[in-house]
């Protein structure tokens, strides 16, 4: 079934490979274990008989950037970001740790010194980066700016960045909480301040702070649609993270979309409402999924779409059906549609084919964690089978597959696996989002909410769609040993789209990760 034959070099006589969980050294670089660094994969192309020709109206490429004679970029995941006018990436929050561990009390599963205490500006073309340590800021700013899975939205019309909530360590280091905070600043001003070596007082003067318990959300997303903010799904988690019960935390999913506006010149809520679901299956009981700015292919109208997310009540698994939010009332829950790949947050490149008779939205997803997989190399397969045999398969492995989930104007859906996985079958993509090229909007090649549209491209034209920065990287789809084998990546991929049709593999050929999950 796999389309690649992968040969392992330098590993002789090993029945299995053990990878160590590694932390960032603190010098701006990302470290992996010696074993992980020592594995070199040689990719030998073998035609895959399952490929269907020209089912995608574009060709997409993911090109890892290499920067010589430059300091290593920081390895980060679960941050929020914005792009300034120069095309540089402003990074806020996140962690230098890989996947959090799952240890019982009194262990700390979110390592305190792995929180990202820097604001970064990254030039994705040159590899240059600048940083500002937020530890010097007053507590109400420094603690939430170091949280993970925080919600952020950059309003490009006003250049205002809004950062809400997030889960992190209190300023005094005594415990963890979901912050009830909202922070606003101008992206251009903060970017320049970081690059110019601003003082603590200068940076504080650029930031506004507000607080409201309704902002205490982590693992959701924040999007502005038709003049209103939508704080979509997520949870409030206070105390020490425990996977399977404990007494040192409280957890509550929001199970709603929180819709609000702000008072002019203030961070106080002016209008507020919620959208909930009466469905007994609790489709809004989800977090850490893909919540994206989107278009309805049947109307061309902007909307918000939720794809994937975890965990259905009482189930270690993910949601496989989408939810569409067109306004404050009555989100559309499509329970008759099933998405196989990428239930956890991952980079999604949205492309609108507005020239076809049956207009369609193509959402290409880069790796991550999902309910199905297609490509595993021999080492990954060995460890995956071992973990499964030991009963450690929760049905949500890391995947190397790049998949495309398609919705058409006539109401039909389809899903394909791209003809090639991430190079060398690297297990990348989880806990980061796609960072779009904002220049495409002014060039008429993307919609106002950043979706690439094929009508703006000439046949055969190749464009830079944007970048993928960081995320969790895993040594194996499931851990060889519990709580080991992941790290925060410092890779940057440039994503190119060419208006030339390409083949892909129907998702029906994918393998379900665990038949015991939903």
Q: How would you describe what is shown here?
A:
This protein has 518 residues and is mostly beta strands. The protein has six helices and 38 strands. The strands form eleven sheets. The protein has a seven-stranded mixed beta sheet, with no helix packed on it. The longest helix has 12 residues, at 378-389.
Keywords:
single chain; about 525 residues; mainly beta; Neuraminidase; 6 helices; globular; disordered N terminus
Element layout with pairings:
Elements (H helix, E strand, L loop, with lengths): L3 E6 L24 H5 L1 E6 L6 E5 L2 E6 L15 E4 L5 E4 L25 E5 L6 E5 L5 H4 L8 E5 L4 E5 L2 E3 L6 E3 L2 E6 H9 L4 H6 L2 E4 L9 E5 L2 E5 L2 E5 L9 E5 L3 E6 L6 E7 L14 E6 L6 E6 L15 E3 L6 E2 L14 E6 L6 E10 L2 E2 L4 H12 L8 E11 L4 E6 L8 E4 L4 E2 L2 H4 L9 E2 L8 E8 L2 E3 L11 E3 L3 E7 L3 E5 L4 E2 L6
Parallel strand pairs: 25-32
Antiparallel strand pairs: 1-2, 3-37, 4-36, 5-6, 6-7, 7-8, 9-10, 10-13, 11-12, 13-14, 15-16, 16-19, 17-18, 19-20, 21-22, 22-23, 23-24, 25-26, 26-28, 27-38, 28-29, 29-37, 30-34, 31-33, 33-36, 34-35
Question: Can you describe this structure in just a few lines?
Answer:
This protein is 8% helix and 36% strand. The chain is mainly beta and 518 residues long.
